[in-house]
Amino acid sequence: MTASNDPVLVLKVTCTDRPGIVAAVSTVIAEQGGNILESSQFNDLRTGRFFMRVRFSFPDPARFRALFRPVGQRLEMEWSVRDEARAGRVLLLVSRLDHCLVDLLYQWRTGTIAMDLAGVVSNHDDLRGLVEASGLPFHYLPVTPEARPEQEARLLDVIERTETELVVLARYMQILSVATADALFGRAINIHHSFLPGFKGARPYHQAHARGVKLIGATAHYVTADLDEGPIIEQDVERVTHADTPEELASIGRHLEARALARAVRWHLEQRVFLNGAKTVVFR
Asked: Could you tell me if 47 and 140 lie in one domain?
């Protein structure tokens, strides 16, 4: 809230670039007693697309939406406005590895990331105690090749019933079907290790050690039907040396994964991430 106790709103705008967009947005806010607290914009000269995020106080959110609607129509905008005080509804997906889950639970508990956790879904029962000790529902949805369609249908049902806005794959070691990935496009974030060169399959850190990799990292991205090929939100890296064992590389990698994923989740929930084709615009 501001000193005047007016609600703080966050406006996201995407449209074809043209003169007058910033003036149009600012005018609606200012003429009705609003106050801009933070503003970011980007013109993609290659695609001709314009992206803008404005954080501002405004006396009446419903009135702002009504006033802005004609502006959005006139400038052919894709736009949304959200009350900053309302935390996004988030569902976490995990398997057996708990480092990303533990970090996100800590960020949630301390208020570092403002989110309303709907619960945790897992294809294994290992982390039930940790989740339920945090006061969250734990949904055990085991996966077998034969029952995968049924399991994903149950997953989508949990997402719908809990009114989940963002799904976070916090080391969920299952590949989502094309249909499920498409259904969650733009509202599901995944994390995976990132090496130069890339190593896929089992024991990637052992492969990296065998090749003498000097740089390891992690990539947080939106989920798409193409495995680990979705629009990138955040990446983190750290230098390693020949003296690091595969186990030490894995430990460093876990730290990077948790850190990159937490940033991506926070930026998404703060309305800082815009899809821009196969990539993103992120106003940090």
From this structure: no
